[in-house]
């Protein structure tokens, strides 16, 4: 059992280790060795000295933070409506929402881009943020949790004269902190690693996110493997810090969802 876990962990960690070692070398990627003789931090100094690198990082944090906050709020409101409110066609609308999860992003890429272009949001922050706010998975995740909240709590609040918005803010929101943390982590990581959509929308270098900046480090005529791997390692650090900081909330949220499912 332990051997299987160790082998599986190594298989997942090996690509990251290869990138880390390659970022500390001055030779080419094809001359890879686990213990190179030419250790250097030159690649990191060049990357950190690039005037556009801080802008890439700032764009990734800005887009990821806004997308995460708005997605969690919108998904929580929708999940509350689907779980606790009664309206015509609720179950059919929810089934249709879940069906959209089966559509690949490439199938909706062109229509969404045309809509964004018609609205004049190409090469803007709203153009990168707004299309990412619809997250059926988040609605499903939060709805499953909210369904486990006793209806007696909501009925007591209604008897006391609380509105639906007050019930949402005072009852639902405090009880959903753990699944919200899980959704926030998933959403931020997905936004941070998003590549195709920011590549289409961010047409100027100043609007690029970090993932797009990594891809554009290499061109057809220039191959900077050391710089690319150094940027890749630096892009992993915020995700590692995020997971370590919210690890207990993530595990509790996943376990809570599993127990209520």
Automatic annotation (TrEMBL):
Q: How does it sit in the membrane?
A: Multi-pass membrane protein
Q: What is one term from the GO cellular component aspect held by the record?
A: plasma membrane
On the tree of life, the source organism's domain of life is Bacteria
Q: Name one Pfam family in it.
A: BPD_transp_1
List the keywords (alphabetical): Cell membrane, Membrane, Transmembrane, Transmembrane helix, Transport
Tell me where the transmembrane regions lie: 61-82, 94-116, 128-146, 167-189, 225-246
The family database entries (InterPro entries) matched by this protein are listed as: MetI-like (IPR000515), MetI-like_sf (IPR035906)
Gene Ontology terms describing biological process: transmembrane transport
Q: Where is the ABC transmembrane type-1 domain?
A: 57-246
Compartment(s) where it occurs, according to its Swiss-Prot or TrEMBL record = Cell membrane
Q: Which Gene3D superfamilies match?
A: MetI-like (1.10.3720.10)
Family designation = Belongs to the binding-protein-dependent transport system permease family.
The name under which this protein is listed is ABC-type glycerol-3-phosphate transport system permease component
The organism encoding this protein is Kribbella sandramycini
């Amino acid at each position: 059992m332990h051997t299987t876990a160790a082998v599986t962990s190594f298989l997942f960690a090996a690509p990251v280790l290869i990138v880390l070692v390659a970022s500390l070398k001055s030779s080419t990627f094809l001359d890879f060795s686990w213990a190179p003789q030419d250790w250097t931090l030159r690649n990191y100094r060049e990357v950190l000295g690039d005037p556009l690198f801080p802008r890439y990082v700032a764009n990734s944090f800005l887009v990821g933070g806004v997308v995460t906050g708005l997605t969690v709020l919108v998904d929580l409101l929708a999940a509350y409506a689907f779980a606790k409110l009664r309206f015509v066609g609720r179950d059919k609308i929810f089934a249709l929402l879940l069906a959209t999860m089966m559509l690949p992003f490439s199938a909706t890429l062109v229509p969404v881009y045309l809509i964004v272009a018609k609205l004049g949001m190409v090469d803007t922050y709203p153009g990168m943020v707004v299309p990412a706010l619809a997250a059926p998975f988040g609605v499903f995740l939060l709805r499953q949790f909210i369904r486990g909240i006793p209806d007696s709590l909501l009925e007591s609040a209604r008897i006391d004269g609380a509105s639906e918005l007050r019930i949402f803010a005072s009852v639902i929101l405090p009880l959903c902190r753990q699944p919200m943390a899980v959704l926030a982590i998933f959403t931020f990581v997905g936004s941070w690693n998003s590549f195709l959509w920011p590549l289409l929308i961010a047409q100027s270098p100043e609007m690029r996110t970090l993932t797009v900046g990594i891809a554009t480090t290499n061109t057809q005529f220039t191959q900077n493997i050391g710089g690319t791997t150094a940027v890749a390692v630096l892009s992993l650090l915020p995700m590692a810090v995020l997971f370590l900081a919210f690890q207990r909330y993530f595990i509790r949220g996943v376990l809570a969802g599993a127990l209520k499912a």
